[in-house]
Design a protein that fits this description.
Radius of gyration: 25 Å
Mean pLDDT: 77
Structural class: alpha/beta
Low-confidence stretches: 1-50, 59-64
Number of strands: 9
CATH architecture of the largest domain: Alpha-Beta Horseshoe
Distance between the termini: 55 Å
CATH class of the largest domain: Alpha Beta
Number of domains: 2
Strand content: 5-15%
Strand order of the largest sheet: 1-2-3-4-5-6-7-8-9
Largest sheet: 9 strands, parallel
CATH superfamily of the largest domain: Ribonuclease Inhibitor
CATH topology of the largest domain: Leucine-rich repeat, LRR (right-handed beta-alpha superhelix)
Helix content: 40-55%
Number of helices: 15
Amino acid sequence: MKFIKTILIVLLISNVSLIAGQVITEVQDRSLYELNVGQFTDVQLLTKFLSLMKNLENKDIKNIQEMQSSVKIFYTNLNQFPDEILLEIFSHLPTELDTYGFKVFQEVCKRWQSLAARRVTSVSFYTHYYQRLYKITDVDLLWISQHCPFLEKLSIGSNQEITDKGLTHISLGCPNLRSLHVFCCTKISDQGIKHISLGCPKLQELSLSGCGITNESLRYLSQNCNDLRNLNFCNFCVYPCAMLRINDEGIKYLSQGCHLLQKLDLQHCYVTDAGLRYLASGCKFLEYIDLRPSYSHGYVTGAGISDLRQSCPCLTTVLTNY
């Protein structure tokens, strides 16, 4: 495992080192004294750093000890740069992380983590292979909330380790969150969504497919997240008692506060013509709605759909068993 971790660090360093070389070369070309990222003028250290990167690039590392030594030398030199230089270097790195990138990210020193994480705007834990290799828990969401204040998008898929506590962490540290996808995380309940609605009022896209929420979550969202455009409450649990968790009462809540709603997925939820009337009165910008139930018979009628179309001129897609 130690060998694998070291390789991951070297892979990350190789990417950063190439970018750093480009940045520093540009700095040298326009004179260090004109640099807008501080008063760092140690040309000797810059030259030494560039030389080290060239050696790492051309060197054939044959064993783990030599690799570890190279990593240590790299860190020792790079960490002598001030924050401004490192931020300039990290500004060329991707702002999106998947499960693999997130775990590699955590292997570097805390200073690198703190500086680079400021730029992260998207984290996705959907990659199934790496989900099996690296377990994502509430502790990881705590780390994100503490280091990624500008996070705008978070995706979590098929994870039974994530609970309401993890979402509470996100709500406290990521106020700029605009998109949240939580897929088949059965330990997520109304309490987690309550905290998200209070701490992330800028939410525009929310998917809670296969999670254990009820009408209460829709009430919290209606009260606190009035900018929502895309909602997915698809219920993969087809038993009648589970279907009743979201019904016309929840739709009524949405119609009272989510007036900008454009896309709504209510697959396997218990919605009738009464729920459609609520949408018709409060969600005039609706463009897409999925009402397909879990049984062969439907819960809405042609009359209900017709009324919805008349009240929502932008509505182009209605999916139903009717």
